[in-house]
Structures are given as structure tokens and as C-alpha cells.
Amino acid sequence: GDATATSETSGAGSERAYPVRVTIVGAGDVGVACAYNLLTRSVCSELVLVDVLKDKLKGHVMDLQHGGAFSSTRVTAADSYADTAHSTVCIITAGVRQRPGESRLELMARNAELFKHIIPPLVENSPDTLLLVVSNPVDLLTNLAWRMSGLPRHRVIGSGTYLDSSRFQTLIAQALGIDPISVQAMVLGEHGDSSFVYRSGITVGGVPLRKCFDMLPQADSSNGGFDGLVDRVHKQVVQAAYEVIELKGYTNWAIGSAVGSIVSAILQDQRKVVPISTAACALKGLESSDVFLSLPCVLGRNGVLETLQILPYMDEDERQQLRQSIAVLEEVVKKP
Ligand code: 6V0
């Protein structure tokens, strides 16, 4: 780990070094799963948790602190946003969940209201921070957080379809009888119903899956072969959250793993290529778009170092699906 390294200091000319501090706003089921995943990685020296429910916050922080003999990360509960000062990364998992019958737009309105109390004080105390939005609808809220924060675009990201991609890789691997880590695949676009699989880019051990499909242990050439499997698994991915929520009430462990991986990539300047929510205008050909959605990004200490220019490498129907995902998000943004 790199837990004792110092973060960039705020303000030019400042000599003071600060610990590598990561703040998580929202100590609900998702926030706590993110905290636990980060603790086990020992990538930061300090983890600060913020929540409006003070007793629940205190209980979670005490419980996490009691594992102190097994982790080099110190966990604290913030009394106020002043305690989050000089955070290298701020993760936002605060937010209400959808009520039965509530539209995404209505959820957006409620969570947008909440962000007014979160983003300004966070950025005021950590002017050089990177924001990682997890709260849903994640693409719209990442866009909002960027607008409210005044931070450059490359320093505001959303977890986006990184989780969907892991779900996809895992389910494809299960179907083929191989290890998920050996499957490279990206789900892109909106973290939601209009997400799509970058199917021409799916590889197994570096070989395009479309080409090596029949050679894999459990590949079933009936049922539409490669395309049939991709379609079925993508449907399962879109349904995954609804299914888990039906069974246990919420999802948290997989998103916690995804967030742990994103934050490690940032703190260790890994320059890892990940599908995360970013400004679509970074893609040549989409310069006029003002939405955020998931595209493959090179992620490092300064946030999004590069958005991969994949448009020319996409099949025409994939480009169409990307435009469709953008249209869905633009529609919501435009509504008064
Ligand atoms: P939860 O368990 O209700 O936790 C939310 C927490 O936020 C609660 O503890 C609240 O007290 C807290 N909170 C509310 N307002 C504030 C505020 N102003 N300041 C600080 N804290 C506040 O919800 P859960 O943790 O299950 O989900 C949180 C959000 O993550 C929701 O919007 C989910 O929809 C979203 N998810 C996003 C995922 C993704 O892939 N992007 C995955 C799972 C959930």
C-alpha cells in the first residue's frame, strides 16, 4: 500500500503535507460497503465518513474502528464538513432510494436537492479534490455535481457502468465455464435501461470472444451462439439490481468493490482503463453533447487522464446505441 504517501497540498506554494484522506458522504448500505472495501485495500491513511444520521454514523464508525488492529487506515466520523478538509477523493453515496411508483425524474429532484447541501461544503474544504458520485441516477447526478462544484470536468466522475461491466463479465464467465478476470468486456452508456454492451470489444484472454466462442468449455452454439449469449446476459445485467433489491432490499457489496477499485486506481495513479461516467463531449464527434455517461477512461491521480476515442472502432449499431443512450439522458436533462 501507499497509505503513508502525502497527497497534493491545496493552494500553490503551500509546503504542508496532508495524509491521504478519502471522504465518503452517506454512511448507508452503499457507503459502508465502500468504506469496508477501502479499509481492506490499505490505499489511504484516513477514511472520513459523513452522514446526517449521527447515531448510525457513530455506530458504523465505531464498528469499523474496532478492526483497527487489522488495517492501516484510520476511520473517523465527521462532525462537520471541516473534518473532510484536504480529501484527495470524495465519494458521494448519500441519497434517497426510489419509492414504489416513483419515477427516475422524481428521484433526481429529491437527490438534486440533497446535493445542494453536500457538494458546496465538500469542495470548499477540499478545493483540489476528485469527486466520485455513486448516488442514483448516477449519470445525471455526476453532471449536476460537476456543475455545482466548479471543478474541471476530468475531476468529477461517476461509478457509472463499471458495476454493470463487472456483472456482465461475471455472468459471461459463468456461462462459459471460465474465470471472470479472463473476460474483458465493457458495458457503456447510461447506468440504467439504455446501457449497451461494446460487443465487438469482448475478449477472452485477449482473443475476440466472437471468434473463440465455440472453443470454450461450456459454450452453447444453439440459442443464437455469441450474439444470443451477449443479449441474454445484458438483459440479466439490466435486471440485476431490481432482482437483488427484490431479494435483500438494496445492493451494496458489488458497488463497494467497484468503488474500491476506482479509488485505488486514482490514489495509486494506476492509469487503469475503466468504463466510468464522464462528460460525453470528450469524444470526438460528440463535442456538442452536455451529458455524462460511461465511456472507457484512463483513470489516474488527476482523474480522467484520457477518454478513449472508441467511436471509429465501434460497429454502426453500437454507435447507434451510444447515441440512443445520450438521447435518453438529454431528454431528462431538458425537462423543466
Ligand atoms: P441508504 O442506506 O438509505 O443510505 C443513504 C444514506 O445517505 C443514509 O444513511 C442517509 O442518512 C444519508 N444522507 C441523506 N442525506 C444526507 C446528507 N444531506 N448528507 C449526508 N448524508 C445524507 O441508501 P443506499 O446506501 O442503499 O444507497 C445510496 C444511494 O446509492 C442511492 O441513491 C442508491 O440508488 C445508490 N446506488 C447506486 C449504485 C450504483 O451503481 N451507482 C448501486 C447501488 C445503490
Please tell me the overall pLDDT. 92
Order of strands, widest sheet: 3-2-1-4-5-6
User: Fraction of residues in helices?
Assistant: 25-40%
Describe the global form.
globular
In terms of per-residue confidence, which ranges show pLDDT below 50 for 5 or more consecutive residues? 1-15
Q: In angstroms, what is the radius of gyration?
A: 20 Å
| Number of H- or I-type helical stretches | 10
The largest pleated sheet is described as:
6 strands, parallel
Order of helices and strands: EHEHEEHHEHEHEEEEEHHHEEEH
Tally of strands: 14
Q: Helices and strands: which structural class?
A: alpha/beta
Which ligands accompany this protein? ligand 6V0
Question: How far is it from the N-terminal to the C-terminal residue, by CA?
Answer: 47 Å
Please indicate the percent range of residues in DSSP E strands (runs of 2 or more): 15-25%
